[in-house]
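Chapter summary example.
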Amino acid sequence: MSVERISTAHAYDSALNNLMSRQDNLTQAQEQMTSGKRVVKASDDPTAAARAERARALEERTTASEKAVNASANAMTLTESALGDAGDLLQQARELLVSAGDASYSDAERASKADALKAIREQLLSVANRPDGQGGYVFSGQGSGGAPFIDKPGGVAFQGIGGQVNVATDEPLPLTLDGGNVWLSASTGNGVFVTKNTNSSNAWIDAGRVTSPDLLTGSTYDIQFSSGAGAPTYTVLRDGNPVSSGNPFTSGQNITVDGMSFAISGQPANGDDFQLTPATRSLSVFDALDNAVKQLSTPNQGGPKVQQAVQDSIRDLDQCTSQISSARSFAGTTLQRLDGVKGRLDATELSAQTSRSNAEDLDMVKALSSFNSQQTGYQAALQSYATIQKLSLFNYLNA
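The structure predicted for these 399 residues follows.
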């Protein structure tokens, strides 16, 4: 009698445990299909959960890097646009200077060109102080309390902090450019040496050029003229010491000294001096325009002085344009590099998403098949348990 009681109880317990286990599995399968995740809790599959967490962390880092890259791309797009505008304005200024060199122009006509140059200068100052739309300025360097450039009586000054701000990524990607370097630090002269008309009213000197870089000395040179009874001659001095003397002069003919070539035109007088000094990176766009305006606004200048003023101004504007072009090239190159960085970040993000999906996502087709199978098994277990419940002594007695 006791054996039969134990067997019946065991059968009931076993059937109930089986039903509860099947119900748990069915509930878990339903939860997985509802969420679309195979790993809902870390306890479902600790190894897969760890893989998914690592992939999620990589996704978050990649997303942060993408935001930084987009910020740099927006900043460099604004910068490239501003520098393009500056280049166009400088080209307009150059055209005005070229036309101002016309010997037939009157003082009033040259003064009119000077007024046009003033307007261009104001536009350039506005470009240099262009905001970035984020509360800062495109050319503020590492920051400034207000507009980075301020127009003072002595000229335009940079009141920002030198250098550039980079985004916080593995690669140095800029958010700003050093405005002082872009706008106020072009090379003087032709970039290697500076030609200067010291005192001549009858002749002018061009910007010169380098013919033999290996012969350059970095010294200061003076070309001093003497005019006696015959044709004028000149003496070349290096750092104050004569190098050659009695050299015959021909207007417009190139003179070559230690790897440097330049031409002096006109009729130099006795005692006229022309100087060559090493170039420096100290030329301001605004100073170049201010000097051009001053020269064109000065009345009663002779032809040689006008030619000298125009040539010097064009030379300086060309150097400033070159500096602006270099900065624009840097912005363009940065934008190209950003495209590559974006591509790598997209690939990294896709890899992380794929890894996370492989670790935690549910194969819906397989899950549906498994759910149907478990549901069929659960229904069969219920029917089986119902049948076992009917196999009691009371059922037999009532039958």
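To summarize the output: The first helix runs from residue 2 to 35.
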